[in-house]
């Protein structure tokens, strides 16, 4: 493909992308293809002779589009958003043109230096403590995903903990004794996260090769991890001879966007100063662009790392996970393969940053460009209005739900534009029966209430699940469900560039209609019995 | 940025990219900026108000371009190539538009399914054994980098080895006994790689939390790992109670593009059947598109995984590392966080692939698109001519070097377009003196030869290093050096889309001129003494 062919092909691709975006509302948000749809449509081997772009491009609309789930669709209200924007796409195009596996500074100084600059911009924009900026001992680095950031921090935490333990035992690095003992101690390490922490902490523990234990975060605590529950788990570990070395705290859990009790947790951890605390703010961290949320960052001075995905709520195409650490030396001393006797203050001082030592892979893409383009194209003001608008629409949705207590119960929220609801089962007769002590066996009275509650929960779970599945199978909107401490719930979060009030209202209508349909059916069944 | 603004901005970006590519030869290949050049040129915080693209774009040429090292430059002959192409850029643009953190099939079925299809294309194009295709128990997955692929395989290998050991001891998964014993056994695990294997194996061992030991691959073996040296290391491990669980073999080592003795190694490992063998073919694996190299893949049926970067030699912009495994279950059983009692034959049969269980991060980009575009735009024939041309130019360079034995000595190559050379020091007088026994202390005669050799090596290293540094500091070409088993050597590899014979010849001229200058200076110094 020569320059002129590229120009023509690129213009055609751009028109297709514009057309795609403008026609999004007319498409089915969730792909309806069956598993294995694609292979039969394509040749079984690569072609031997070159194909012109005019032959390749039509396959995008013919074969790829039907298999896409449209994350920018105004009716995409599932998981968390994953947004893109035109400025971000342009930056990704430049990045592809300037391709380099920029594993060190020299490979392309701009790749490293722009990353340092824009991550300082992000840190300030989010109101992170100064410690996380590059000018001191901390700094930011772009990872692929929040889960990768967690794995990186866990490996660094494991090495830091083992190093400290071994040094306290008077052992010397590099000796066989050190290695032997390190192996023994490694088996005692435990990573912690709340029950509501994203599963990537559990996976990170697999990668790091350590145990994992979860901290209760029950409904009565609003699904937040509290200092009290954390202390219980820490003390149990101690009694059992286990060594907690890492903890994920969440700013916005996956199920309900709960925020852990940071100050309490920091207080408890004063007695466990070697535990690495990582703040997983993958989605909700974006809300820290708003001053009214920045009080949340105060406790971060006690923590070791913080991660937020620009590629979720902040208009930057995947991947752009921003990890900040309080002491970059914690990462580089674990992940640099330059032996310690070759390390120098020149490198550690940050004059030259080799980000390969801040991550698992060696090579890296020029991802800072898209963050740079997005921050400049929207400006902090633009991003603030963007986030605020979604939060307000989340509040609107919540108020609509509250207006129909006959159909819905709010489990949590609105929190960061997410509302989590359950459908209210219509079995008043049965429930009353179950709750009322039966005079024939009064001795069991005390057992009756829990049974009734269980039955009520069972009923609620059943209808909520039915409503959820019916809504998604009809395909007008796409939502996700989750089981939160035994409760089956529906999560609704609408937060991309195409989100609008009318889509929120329509989504609520769909939920109402579907709930009425399901509950009506239940009543019909009930009366038939 | 609305559609019309995007159209205009994109057209401008495309013109800039075309102009960049067409003027590459006129640019300085290696960026000459000093550390910290960028921050003073940019604001210290993100702007509050939005900036139009017309304000952003000029900063690319003003501030970013000077900080780029141009990997597509015809005079880029350093490291290994990292190529891009117009079709690849277009695919990256589409990928950014369709952004999704496609962590499971449903998130965008096309992302998963196209990946399976094109990786089968790649496997067949490279002549990999059938076992690595998706139709059986194997399959391919796109990782970010070859180093990430290594880390993933090491974690899977660690879990597979520990699982087998624990089962043989009669323990039951999920019990405390299993966990306890697992911790003990983990401390005995050792990952292996040859001395010449890329350092990412050593880093992978850090990530996986195990020991690492290297296998000698000395000059007399052509820097290849042989069965004999591997056996020695395996037996030493056994004597010491260590358990080798993973081995990297290389198809094209970083320093010299050596190919390990696969058949011999497979033979030795019959006695260690639990060791996971990973073939790191990050760069040279691309040459397997040529039938004349495909005999190399025969031994792979004995190995567990193979990785090759499309983003090095095959015109696909970073990142596109293609990892193939013989049994995908080895990856998913280690990396899936779905508990075993929830796993099903439906998923394991491959009807629906969840690539999140084949990698460390959760989310993933739509990277299959660019491989698809590149394979179709060039065709297998096109890629074959492309690779063959570079290999022939590598042979040309080698023949030029051989024509000047007074200046250069070939350490290795040409291999996969890479030639590794040293500069021949001009100290005949001193060397003869050093080699000739001094009659005053004949007793030490036997010590004289090694000293002379050491001195010769020292001299050669000194002049080679001087030539290398002078060439790079002048900036017309960019090459890398390396120390291979004590020998300081210069690596020259030219293999991107802009590579041409005239640039190869000019690079050789520069090396000759610089070597003559350095050696002439040495002589002048010598005669002055």
Automatic annotation (TrEMBL), chains A, B:
Keyword Lyase belongs to the record: yes
Keywords: Decarboxylase, Lyase, Pyridoxal phosphate
Signal peptide interval: none
Coiled-coil features, chain-numbered ranges: none
Pfam family, one: Pyridoxal_deC
Lyase keyword on record: yes
Gene3D superfamilies in UniProt: Aspartate Aminotransferase, domain 1, dopa decarboxylase, N-terminal domain, Type I PLP-dependent aspartate aminotransferase-like (Major domain)
Cross-referenced InterPro entries: Aromatic_deC (IPR010977), PyrdxlP-dep_de-COase (IPR002129), PyrdxlP-dep_Trfase (IPR015424), PyrdxlP-dep_Trfase_major (IPR015421), PyrdxlP-dep_Trfase_small (IPR015422), Pyridoxal-P_BS (IPR021115)
Cofactor(s) annotated in UniProt: pyridoxal 5'-phosphate
Family according to the record: Belongs to the group II decarboxylase family.
Record protein name field: Aromatic-L-amino-acid decarboxylase
Phylogenetic classification of the source organism: Eukaryota, Fungi, Dikarya, Ascomycota, Pezizomycotina
